[in-house]
Write a structure and sequence with these properties.
This protein has helices spanning 7-36, 42-62, 70-83, 86-114, 121-152, 157-160, 174-184, 203-206, 219-222, 238-248, 267-284, and strands at residues 167-169, 188-193, 196-202, 224-225, 252-257, 260-266. By secondary structure, the chain is α+β, with helices and mostly antiparallel strands. The model is unreliable at 1-5 (pLDDT under 50).
């Protein structure tokens, strides 16, 4: 079964999401007890009371069903458990997050203009609007990521790889490699020697060396050698590969079948697939 349709992941998501608000409520209760037991100690009473109110307010705010707040994650977990579709539940939760964010921005702007003191007056209103804007940005990014995952769901590595295999020799200098990047626009190359794969060279590896040393440093000195190279199989699910690339921090991955390199997955190849599927979907929806 696909990871996005695994109900146990929805339960795990729910448990993780509720942990934050529960912790805040517990802290609020603990500080509340300290404030009650402070007696005549005004400093301790005020400090503990303030911390209790802050934690209580934080817990309540986090329970608002707007993604990516904890309440939004709980909302997503519930929808996920019902629909068994991670991408769809994320899109719905992200929309709720956008609605909440627009509401916070509007309420904050109104509070700032009218200087409504119960909500903090002008300064409090500006902060509320800023938090709403931040939540709106995060919700939009989450929805974009969900849309991208939805577009790639069901695809295999063979569907998103590029069969073109840009290669370079291991003996060339980094200065020459920089010229090759500028000439072709490619940010990743397979490094070969005697027609055998020996490593992977990327723009990130190039920029790990100071510019003044490019002319005296070879590709072999900074490339990722073959024995440390992560690779993908053509039949591997595309989403599984993306998660793996994110975990190990790689933006390029060679594809190997039968001991031979048959393609490479890069950020550009993934973007091309996403753009093509978006354009086809737009035309089909007309």
């Amino acid at each position: 079964a696909r990871i996005s349709r695994d109900p146990s992941r929805a339960i795990e998501e729910f448990n993780i999401a509720v942990a934050g608000p529960i912790s805040s409520f517990l802290l609020a209760g603990g500080f509340g007890l300290v404030a009650r037991g402070a007696g005549s100690n005004a400093v301790l009473h005020t400090l503990a009371g303030s911390l209790a109110w802050i934690n209580f307010s934080l817990a309540v705010f986090n329970l608002v069903p707007g993604f990516p707040l904890d309440g939004g994650r709980i909302f997503r977990a519930i929808i996920w458990g019902v629909t068994k579709d991670f991408s769809r539940s994320t899109r719905i939760a992200a929309r709720s997050g956008q609605v909440v964010a627009y509401g916070m921005i509007a309420l904050g702007a109104m509070t700032a203009v009218t200087n409504y003191l119960p909500l903090g007056g002008t300064i409090g209103g500006m902060w509320l609007a800023f938090i709403g804007w931040f939540l709106l940005t995060a919700a939009r990014q989450s929805r974009a990521q969900a849309d991208a995952r939805g577009a790639l769901e069901g695809l295999r590595v063979a569907d998103i790889m590029t069969p073109e295999l840009p290669t370079i020799g291991r003996e060339i200098s980094l200065e020459d490699y920089a010229r090759e990047i500028m000439r072709t626009g490619r940010r990743a190359h397979l490094v070969v020697a005697h027609e055998q794969l020996v490593g992977l060279m990327t723009a990130e590896a190039l920029h790990s060396v100071p510019n003044q040393d490019w002319d005296v440093t070879s590709v072999q000195a900074v490339m990722l050698p073959k024995d440390k190279l992560h690779w993908a199989a053509p039949e591997e699910p595309a989403l599984s590969l993306l998660d793996r690339m994110r975990t190990i921090g790689m933006q390029q991955m060679p594809v190997i079948a039968g001991g031979n390199v048959v393609g490479i997955v890069t950020r550009d190849s993934i973007l091309r697939v996403l753009q093509a599927r978006h354009e086809v979907g737009s035309v089909a929806g007309r």
